[in-house]
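User: Could you go from structure to sequence for me? I need the amino acid at each position, not a summary. Structure tokens:
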């Protein structure tokens, strides 16, 4: 058996290289999405089941003639040393009837085996945490790795926000890309739709609803908020897992990083007094560029939204304390 070589230094970061740790539904869909994006020229897939990683790499690579050239292969942790972005999708799947927070103990243990493998190689890339519960696991990664906070971000409520925009766009019969609204807080049951600051191309959501002739927009938007919150449960009940939407969300975050776009996305990050919240990871809008998180963008909230955000933070803090992270 070949002795594994541990690299202690990362001489440079290859901006055209991405690593995906975990080749389940989400990891495989992410690899497929990134192949089509043209963002990277090299992609390494890592999984506890080496055959699974090799199979996914082969399958995805067969689409190369239809896209831009990319070297795609199954590897091990030595292959991530120079990756610009290390995407972690490994973990137990959410089952029907199970909440994201129910996954905590199982996935914390998995991360306790993954993160040390990354840190002892002194990787310089950005860690993008996707596994659920993403807020807790991003917090866990921060504590286990000791890396700078800007380099460790969670996919957060990027997907939830996309779901909200899609639902509002459909309701208002307008292009969802013209809808500007965010889901903040936990990526989970306590998430908040910050509708008080939502707008459609600069027109407040309330005023736009009136323009469209809706008489009771508050009632309908509240229904939409609940639909967004329960979207994952509905999909899991019907097809056992969600993976296409999150794969597109990961692609979007990678675009913002690789292209240094300074895009504002609601990713999971550590709170340091924003909205009076400390020492917990949750989602609020943030500027994302080549160095990862550049700065947070606290949006205005009404009293109810502010109260619900604090409740969301307390729910996450309780999980952190119960699991001694």
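Assistant: Here is the amino acid at each position, in order:
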């Amino acid at each position: 058996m070949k002795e594994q070589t541990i690299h202690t230094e990362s001489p440079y970061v290859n901006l055209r290289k991405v690593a995906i740790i975990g080749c389940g539904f989400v990891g495989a869909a992410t690899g497929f999405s990134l192949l089509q994006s043209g963002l990277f020229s090299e992609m390494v897939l890592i999984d506890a089941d080496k055959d699974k990683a090799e199979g996914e790499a082969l399958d995805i690579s067969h689409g190369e003639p239809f896209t831009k050239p990319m070297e795609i292969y199954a590897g091990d942790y030595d292959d991530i040393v120079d990756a610009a972005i290390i995407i972690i999708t490994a973990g137990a799947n959410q089952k029907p009837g199970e909440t994201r927070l129910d996954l905590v103990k199982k996935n914390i243990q998995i991360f306790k085996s993954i993160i040390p493998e990354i840190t002892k190689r002194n990787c310089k890339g950005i860690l993008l945490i996707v596994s659920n519960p993403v807020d807790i696991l991003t917090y866990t990664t921060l504590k286990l790795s000791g890396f700078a906070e800007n380099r460790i971000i969670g996919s957060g409520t990027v997907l939830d926000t996309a779901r909200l925009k899609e639902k509002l766009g459909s309701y208002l019969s307008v292009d969802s890309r013209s809808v500007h609204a965010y889901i903040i807080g936990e990526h989970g049951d306590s998430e908040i739709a910050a509708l008080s600051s939502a707008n459609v191309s600069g027109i407040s959501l309330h005023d736009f609803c009136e323009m469209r002739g809706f008489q009771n927009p508050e009632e309908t938007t509240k229904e939409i908020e609940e639909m967004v919150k329960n979207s994952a449960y509905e999909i899991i009940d019907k097809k056992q897992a969600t993976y296409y939407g999150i794969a597109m969300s990961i692609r979007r975050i990678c675009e913002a990083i690789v292209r240094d776009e300074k895009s504002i996305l609601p990713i999971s990050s550590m709170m340091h007094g924003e909205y009076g919240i400390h020492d917990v990871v949750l989602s609020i809008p943030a500027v994302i560029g080549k160095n990862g998180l550049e700065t947070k963008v606290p949006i205005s909230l009404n009293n109810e939204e502010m109260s619900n955000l604090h409740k969301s933070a307390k729910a996450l803090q309780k999980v952190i304390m119960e699991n001694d992270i």
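One structural detail worth keeping in mind: The chain has two domains: 14-154, 158-322.
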